[in-house]
Amino acid sequence: MVKMADGKIYIIGVPENGVDELDSGLIKLGVETERIELPDSIAEKTMIPLKKMSRWGAKSFTGKTPVVVNGSGNYHHLTYGICSSIPEQFGYIHFDRHDDLGGATQGYVTMAAFVTPMMFNTSAEDYMMVGSYHDGSKSIGFRSIDDWERRLPGLLEQLPGDVYVSVDLDVLDPEKFYSGYDCGTMQPSQLMSALEMIGEKKVVVGGDICGYIGSSSGRLLEDSKRISLETILKLRDMAYKP
Asked: What HEC string does 94-139 produce?
């Protein structure tokens, strides 16, 4: 993958104030950002045709290293479009309280159903999940998250050398992060340590975060914003490391 403007973080222009707050926070930290516009035909719909999402992703991210600030969990399916821009085979790593494997949405992606079609329609070769409902051969469930350090290396071995990492921050303990959704049990320190391990063992070709809903939440605002910024900066450092 061609790496453009080392250290740049892309901000998807979803109609939510959380992304604007994180963009401002990154700029204050001296980080270069670039806005990626989202067509109304995607922003205003809950079910998006696969071809439309793929075209948007390819147009927006081809030739770039996609390190991306997304909106709330309402827009997690934009990850499908972002991953459509990655030409080489990669493994997909999904940190989320929800598996987003979805149900019967053939030909479409939604916020709850984009991981399965990604396996068939992008260069994604395999996936693993951390923090969701499932706890099995491809996942570390939210009830066994304290066992992540023992299990993660084995799961990573099953993936290609190149990986894309998507983090929905509702995977975190609600006492630490407020997303507006039912949350997981992962601690911020566990998330950072898991990302560190991934960065040591794999080549990270891109990543994104979602889940920060902004100051309107009125709860854990400063902690949630800080955690969001720390996570996207960690992904940036993983994707742009020499």
From this structure: EECCCCCECCCCCCEEECCECHHHHHHHCCEEEEEEECCCCCCCCE
Query: CA-CA distance, 73 to 177, in Å (whole number)?
Result: 13
Torsion of CA 228, 13, 165, 218, to 10 degrees: 30
SS (H, E, C) the chain: CCCCCCCCEEEECCCCHHHHHHHHHHHHCCCCEEEECCCHHHHCCCCEEHHHHHHHHHHHHCCCCCEEECCCHHHCCHHHHHHCCCCCCEEEEEECCCCCECCCCCCEEECCECHHHHHHHCCEEEEEEECCCCCCCCEECHHHHHHHHHHHHHHHHCCCCEEEEEEEHHHECCCCCCCCCCCCCECHHHHHHHHHHHHHHCEEEEEEEECCCCHHHCCCHHHHHHHHHHHHHHHHHHHCCC
User: What is this structure's pTM?
Assistant: 0.94
Placement of tokens 């045709």 in the chain: 49
Mean pLDDT in consecutive groups of 10 residues from the start of the chain, 242 residues = 62 93 95 95 94 96 95 95 97 96 84 95 97 89 94 97 97 88 90 98 97 72 88 96 77
d(CA 186, CA 54): 31
Q: Which residues contact 44 (CB under 8 A, 6 or more apart)?
A: none
